[in-house]
Amino acid sequence: MPLRMLGALAGALFCWACYWSIRLAYADHIANDRSRPAIERAIRLAPGNPEYYVRLAEADPSSALTAMEKAVALDPLNSAIWIDFARIAEEHKDFQRAESCLLRAVGLDRTFAPRWLLAGYYFRRHDPPGFWPAVRSALATSYDDVAPLFDECWQLAPNPGTILAQAIPDRNDVLRQYLNYVLAKKRLDLAEPVASRVMEHAGRDDVPALLSYCDDLLAKNQAPPALEIWNSMSKKRLLDYPALIPENGASITNGGFEKPFLTTAFDWRLAQLPGVSALRGGTLPMLRLSFSGKQPETCEILSEFVPLAPARKYLLSVRYETDEIEGDTGLSWRVLDVRDGADLLEGTGQLKGKERVEGEEELSFTTPAETQLARVALMYQRVLGTVRITGSISLRNVRLSIAK
Question: Are residues 333 and 377 in the same domain?
């Protein structure tokens, strides 16, 4: 073929390509109007674009199903178009077709979105046999916050325990979210099997949820399950603390103040109080509490939940020193029974002021037969006839042991 003819052919092809580029761009411009006449004109200019048929279905409900049939025929492997078809079919009360379209989308797309939409469809249709496998599949591919799916589960399930068995996959991120969800609903009675499944393959990300579960158990005086979770985390090295074994006298966590406080579960909780500042650390670990004289007249400064063996005699030993606090400090230790708040200590537990001299107090108490949990607490109460204290106290060690 002569070069002149090749050049002419190339020029014609270029012009043809330019014509169609302009035509398609113009069709897009017209379709942006989203009115039925505009979209129909865009379809005449570019009849192979399935998106225009989706827009036509939205602009003209009377021809919506027909338009969507053309859209999926043009692009049958596009899951988003099948999802649009399902939505429009449901709006037109064509539920069989809506379900079929969503199932087609799920078959084409392995991600979360179509499975979430399928579960939502079965939820709206009050169809438990369809909903449970769909929501389980959705949660198995989920990411981020899935609380809306849990909401649907709770509304549909006659017994919320059904959710764990039928909906929750073996994914710790989902199990962890479900544990937090159950705790937020104040359903501690349903949390134990969830926490057990989380604990099976627990990692660092699961620790906050498990500690929150411990807190809720402790608030309800349920020491054994809280202790089981705590010790399981300890054995998996998810906590930098040894296990607690109250029958062997191992009941205090972080008694030497070597580690930063978790401020939860069985570790120290330090109150944030005006006029009281705290500093932990030093070459010899300690907790230094300083008082400005502006602290509340009565307050709890430091506390820790401690598991106890019932009907046993204990010794609470505290090593400390005071600086510029003399005489009656107003500071005292309490061992408070979680059942009723009663102080178990035999005696006042009061700390005497010393001028930079380290001392040790040894206090005793006996646990009632029904008691398995108490709070060891450092309290302050202004002594009558005195002003609020200033100065500091350094706690070196708090130890709890079973008396021989």
Answer: yes
Report if pTM > 0.90. no
Are 189 and 208 in contact by the 8 Å Cβ rule? The answer is: no
Give the CB-side neighbour count of residue 149, counting CA atoms within 13 A.
32
Residues 177 and 217 in one domain: yes
Q: Which residue type occupies 289? A: L
Q: Is residue 134 part of a domain?
A: no
Assess whether 295 and 387 both reside in one domain: yes
Q: In this structure, which long-range contacts are made by residues 218-221, counting pairs with CB atoms below 8 Å and at least 24 apart in sequence?
A: 218/265, 218/266, 218/305, 218/338, 218/373, 220/188, 221/338, 221/339, 221/373
Burial readout 17-31 (b: 16 or more C-beta within 10 A, e: otherwise) = eeeeeeeeeebeebb
Quote the Cα angle for 200-167-197, to 5°: 10
304: which strand partners?
Answer: 376
On whether residue 92 sits in a domain, the answer given is no
Copy the structure tokens of residue 357: 């001299």
Task: Judge if 317 and 369 occupy the same domain.
Answer: yes
Domain count, the chain: 2
- 51 vs 54: CA distance, rounded Å: 5
The pLDDT confidence band at residue 67, using thresholds 50, 70 and 90, is confident
> pLDDT digit string (tens) for 124-147?
999 999 999 999 999 999 988 999
Of 166-170, 298-302, 359-363, least confident by mean pLDDT is: 359-363
Instruction: Tell me, yes or no, whether 398 lies in a domain.
Output: yes
SS3 of residue 271 by DSSP: coil
The domain that contains 220 carries what CATH number? Answer: 1.25.40
Range of the domain at 177: 170-239
Backbone angles phi, psi at 275, to 5 degrees: 85, 0
Assess whether 303 and 195 both reside in one domain: no
Residues 286 and 391 in one domain: yes
Q: Calculate what percentage of the chain has a pLDDT beyond 70.
A: 86
Yes or no: say if 304 and 267 are a contact pair by the CB < 8 Å rule: yes
Report pLDDT digits (tens) over 150-182. Answer: 999 999 987 778 899 999 999 999 999 999 999
Same domain for 210 and 323, yes or no, is: no
Q: Quick: pLDDT tens for 32-63.
A: 556 666 666 656 666 667 776 777 777 788 88
